[in-house]
Amino acid sequence: MIALLFFSALLWDEAAAWGFKDGVLHNSIWLERAAGVYHREARSGKYRLTFAEAKAVCEYEGGHLATYQQLEAARKIGFHVCAAGWMAKGRVGYPIVKAGANCGFGRTGIVDYGIRLNRSERWDAYCYNPNGKECGGVFTEPRHVFKSPGYPGEYENEQVCYWHVRVRYGQRVRLRFLEFDVEDDAACLADFLEVYDSYDDVSGFVGR
User: Distance between CA atoms of 12 and 33, rounded to whole angstroms?
Assistant: First the structure.
């Protein structure tokens, strides 16, 4: 799993709203972390997780399957994902902020498939990690210094952090490392830092 330790300085111009499409902020990392709720697919792709596997994915990352109420709380602050996923107690659904022709059946709210009797059905997962928002966040200031949890001490095992820098289209972000120390692994398969030029962790991969 992802773990990292670094102490960095960021400089960028004053930011404005960014990452919206058709009035919806899609699958935003900072929004997920603000709510403590996030969406997960299997490594093999969409709709590949049984209930037991979805539960294991969330627990492996230090959380648990989100309840209907937690998913709705995230939706109310703008969390919008057009993909059905397991929730607590074997429920399946997904959050819709803005109705669309191809997602949500033309309505907003939690599209609820109810509690599934067949736990071998394969969907995605909606996880809840109450500590997730303590590691990461969204930055819009012209300058910001951020660091891993516990710095200058070691970070915890299985630590996952997302930092989201919001700037206007065409602006540049300058990332400067003041100190960087991760587990020694030439292939970057143990501890690593990844950078994305996008507002999600699905597209815009720059490098590891």
Answer: 22
